[in-house]
Structure formats: C-alpha cells, structure tokens
C-alpha cells in the first residue's frame, strides 16, 4: 500500500545525500523521481530571481552590512540632532538571545549619561548649576553649608565689630565657595571652625579687615579640604591670626 507524503516522519535536518521526491507536472507523462538535496541546492542557487533577492537583501540602500567597510562614515551627517533622533544598538540584556538590535533615542541617551556623570562630578555650587545669591547681615552670623556655592555672597553692614563663623565641612563640600563683603565701618572677622585654617592662619584662626574706611572690602574663600579654606580673591586689607601664637 502506497504511503502518502504527509504520513512520512518529518526530518529535523537534511544532508546533501538525502533524497527529495519530485512529483510529475500535472498533465504530463508520469516522471516522478527522486532528487538528492545537493541537486535541489544547486537549482535554488542558480535561480536568478532568488540570487537577485539575496543580493538586494544585503546591499539595499540604507542597509548596514558588516562585511562592507566605511558604510557609516559615508552617511549624511546631521549637524543638529534632536531628542527624537535614534541610534542603532544591541541590547546585552535581551533574552533568550543577547545582543538583539534595538533603537535608542537621543533623549534617552542624554538622560542615561546625565545620571552616570552625576555620580562622578559634584554639581557646581552644590546645586544644579551656578546659583547667585546675596544675603545681607547686620549681626554675627554662623555660616551654614547651604550658604556655600559659586556666586553666593554674605554682606555685613554694621559700624561695630561683627563675625562670620565658617561651618564644619564634609568631603562633599570640597570646592564650594563663599564671598564675604564688608559694607559697614566696623571690623569684620571671618572665624574658622574647630580644626580649620584660613589660608596661613592657625587652627581655628581668623582673617579680618579692621579698616573703618574700607566699606568695599571683600574676600572669597574656597574649601580645599575639610579643614582648609583658601583665598580665591580679595579686596581690602585682610589679616590672618593664629590663636596659638
């Protein structure tokens, strides 16, 4: 009894020596025959339509072929990218097959890079950029870390002696600055915290301007270590002290 083709077991793989079954073209004399897979492969390879399709698949305009050099460098450069533009990437976390092709928008790339660089660099001025602020004081004032920052200024306007006391610092405060301005005739003293120095002062020393006429005097300090303040710039007559001298 003849066995139908659909009743035969399916092969999971084939080799050149395996045999295919060619059925006669309807309306012609019976010419059913066996055909080795090596012959089938050669026939498919020789078919011009198939060869043309394969060629277009690997060389169509806009396609990137790993074996073709300089394809990316030959593309048109976009001078002003926008957030909606996309770049091609491979995802190392895809499952079950790693490194599947994905697109990444420039907006997502920017967000990723910002998050990464925020872990490496402290924001300028302790915030999201340079902030400018001026606080006017008329009496002794203990400076707090929140007062520090590029562009942050504390003024003192009093005819009597007054003091700004610097805050205790942590490692995250390094590089922060503060500017002091003497607006009044009274002596203005900047007092270092316990164990801190201001320029060449002693530990817990001070720097002061006592000139009554120097109502324009100013000094900018930067924290270079948790125990050291250095002078960035100044105007007026400033003198450091060493309490242990």
Note the overall shape: rod-shaped
Strand order of the largest sheet: 5-7-9-13-14-11
Low-confidence spans: pLDDT under 50, at least 5 residues?
none
User: With helices defined by DSSP (H or I, 4 residues minimum), what is the helix count?
Assistant: 3
> What is the helix fraction of residues, given as a range?
10-25%
Sheet-strand content, in percent, reads 25-35%
**Rg:** 39 Å
Round the mean pLDDT to the nearest integer and report it.
Answer: 83
Distance between the termini: 118 Å
Category from helices, strands and their pairing: alpha/beta
Largest sheet: 6 strands, mixed
Counting DSSP E segments of at least 2 residues, the number of strands comes to: 15
Query: What is the chain-wise order of helices and strands?
Result: EEHHEEHEEEEEEEEEEE
């Amino acid at each position: 009894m003849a066995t139908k083709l659909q009743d035969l077991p399916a092969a999971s793989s084939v080799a050149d020596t395996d045999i295919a079954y060619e059925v006669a073209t309807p309306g012609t004399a019976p010419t059913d025959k066996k055909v080795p897979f090596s012959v089938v492969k050669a026939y498919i390879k020789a078919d011009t339509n198939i060869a043309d399709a394969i060629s277009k698949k690997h060389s169509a305009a806009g396609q990137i072929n790993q074996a073709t050099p300089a394809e990316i460098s030959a593309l048109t450069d976009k001078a002003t990218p926008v957030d909606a533009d996309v770049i091609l990437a491979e995802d190392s976390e895809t499952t079950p097959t790693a490194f599947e092709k994905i697109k990444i928008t420039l907006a997502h790339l920017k967000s990723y890079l910002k998050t990464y660089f925020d872990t490496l660099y402290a924001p300028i001025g302790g915030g999201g950029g340079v902030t400018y602020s001026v606080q006017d004081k008329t009496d002794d004032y203990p400076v707090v870390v929140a007062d520090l920052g590029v562009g942050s200024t504390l003024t003192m306007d009093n005819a009597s002696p007054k003091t700004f006391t610097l805050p205790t610092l942590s490692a995250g405060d390094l590089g922060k600055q503060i500017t002091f301005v003497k607006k009044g005739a009274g002596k203005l003293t900047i007092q270092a915290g316990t164990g801190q120095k201001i320029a060449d002062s002693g530990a817990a020393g001070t720097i002061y301007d006592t000139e009554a006429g120097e109502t324009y005097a100013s000094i900018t300090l930067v924290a270079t270590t948790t125990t050291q303040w250095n002078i960035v710039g100044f105007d007026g007559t400033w003198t450091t002290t060493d309490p242990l001298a």
